[in-house]
Design goal:
By secondary structure, the protein is an alpha/beta fold. It has eleven helices and eleven strands. The strands form two sheets. Strands 6-7-8-9-11-10 form a six-stranded mixed β-sheet, with helices on both faces. A five-stranded parallel β-sheet has the order 2-1-3-4-5. It is globular and about 60 Å long. The relative contact order is 0.11. Bound molecules: adenosine monophosphate (AMP) and manganese (II) ion (2 copies). Adenosine monophosphate binds next to β10 and β11.
C-alpha cells in the first residue's frame, strides 16, 4: 500500500467528523506546528471545531509567536459530537508528551513522515519519502480542492524550510516537493521573510552559547565524527533559547566530518542527544538504539546518565559503525 492510497480515507475522515484535537510532538518545531496550524485553519474554514494542543516546551524562537494558539491540556469532547484526534509529525504516541491515559477515547489519525516508529493510530497517512509533514497536509488540501490561503501557505512553507534546512537537504529527483512549495510561494509565502524568521531574531546569549559549544567540539574516529555538548549551567547563564540549525551547519562543515553529535544536559539526570549525518550513515538507527527516532540524516534521543556516561555510551555504539 502506498502512502497516497490513504488520502481518500483521510479526506473522508476529515469530512465525517466535526470536532478535532490536533497534536504534534513535544518540544515542537515548525514542521509539526505548521502542519497543526494549517490543518486547523483549513478545517475551521470547512466549519469544523478545532483544538490545537502541544505539550511544549516552546524553546525555538522562530515559532514563539504562535504559542498562545495552543493549549497545554487536552480538551473534553462532548460525547454527542463526532471527534477525531489528529497527530502530526510524531512517530510514537509517547512523543506527543501527553500520557496515553489522558487522551479522550476517540479514533486517531496519524500524519507523519518519520521512517520508523510505532505503528499506532486508526488511520495512518505516513510517507517517509516526504521532506516534511507540512507537504502531506498541503497534499491533502490540494487533493480536496481547497488550496492553502496566504496564512496557511506561509506556515506550511516555514515547516518545509525547517525540515529541509532551508532546501539544503533536498535530494536529486525531488522536483515534486519543489513544485509544491512553489505553489505556496504563489499563494503568498515569502522565502525572504521565512529565512529571516528561521535565521534571525536570536538572543545574544544564544550566540555566546554557540561559541561555547563550538569551543568544546572535538573530532573522533579519524575526524569522521564531531561531538560537543551544552551543560545545564550554560542554559542557566545564557538562557534556554534553542538553536535549530546553525550549530549543526557549523559542525558538519568541518572537512572529513560525516556525523555531528550534540548533547544537551538536562536537570533531571537525562541528556538529550541530537544527531546529524551528511553521508549514508543512518543516525536514526543510532537514535532508535537509545529509544529515540527521527530520520536517516537527522535524529534524536534522550539518554539517562550524566554527560560523561552518555558520551562514553554513544562512542561505544558509534565505534561499531565508524571504527
Ligand atoms: P532534533 O535534533 O531535536 O532537531 O531532532 C531531529 C529529528 O529527530 C526530528 O525529526 C525529531 O522529530 C527526531 N527526534 C528527536 N528526538 C527524538 C526522540 N526522542 N524520539 C523520536 N524522534 C526524535
Ligand atoms: Mn518535527
Ligand atoms: Mn518533520
Amino acid at each position: 500500500m502506498t502512502p497516497e492510497s490513504a488520502v481518500p480515507e483521510v479526506l473522508r475522515a476529515l469530512d465525517d467528523h466535526d470536532e478535532f484535537i490536533i497534536l504534534g510532538h513535544e518540544d515542537p518545531d515548525a514542521d509539526c506546528l505548521g502542519s497543526q496550524l494549517a490543518a486547523g485553519s483549513w478545517l475551521e474554514r470547512k466549519g469544523k471545531r478545532v483544538h490545537l494542543c502541544s505539550a511544549g516546551p516552546w524553546s525555538r524562537p522562530e515559532i514563539a509567536e504562535w504559542e498562545s494558539r495552543f493549549s497545554r491540556r487536552l480538551p473534553k469532547i462532548d460525547p454527542d459530537r463526532s471527534g477525531l484526534i489528529i497527530i502530526m509529525d510524531c512517530s510514537s504516541p509517547e512523543r506527543t508528551g501527553f500520557p496515553g491515559d489522558s487522551w479522550p477515547d476517540l479514533p486517531v489519525l496519524v500524519i507523519d513522515h518519520h521512517a520508523a516508529g510505532s505503528d499506532y493510530g486508526d488511520i495512518r497517512f505516513v510517507d517517509p519519502s516526504s521532506p516534511s509533514t507540512t507537504l502531506l497536509v498541503q497534499q491533502l488540501m490540494e487533493t480536496a480542492g481547497d488550496p492553502p490561503n496566504p496564512e496557511e501557505a506561509e506556515i506550511l512553507f516555514l515547516g518545509f524550510c525547517t525540515d529541509t534546512g532551508y532546501f539544503r537537504h533536498v535530494e536529486p529527483g525531488q522536483s515534486a516537493p519543489l513544485e509544491a512549495v512553489a505553489r505556496l510561494v504563489g499563494a503568498g509565502a515569502s522565502p525572504a521573510e521565512t529565512f529571516r524568521l528561521l535565521a534571525g531574531g536570536r538572543s545574544l546569549g544564544s550566540r555566546k552559547l554557540l561559541g561555547r559549544v563550538l569551543d568544546r567540539a572535538d573530532v573522533y574516529f579519524d575526524g569522521r565524527l564531531v561531538l560537543s555538548w551544552e551543560t545545564w549551567k550554560d542554559w542557566r547563564e545564557l538562557g534556554s533559547e534553542r538553536d535549530s540549525d546553525m550549530l549543526y551547519q557549523l559542525l558538519t562543515s568541518i572537512a572529513g566530518v560525516e556525523v555531528a553529535v550534540v548533547i544537551r544536559e538536562q536537570n533531571d539526570g537525562n541528556c538529550v542527544v541530537g544527531l546529524r549525518s551528511i553521508t549514508d550513515l543512518d543516525v536514526a538507527d543510532i537514535a532508535r538504539f537509545f529509544g529515540g527516532g527521527g530520520h536517516r540524516k537527522a535524529a534524536g534521543c534522550t539518554v539517562s546518565g550524566d554527560l560523561n556516561d552518555v558520551i562514553e555510551h554513544l562512542m561505544q555504539i558509534f565505534a561499531d559503525r565508524l571504527d
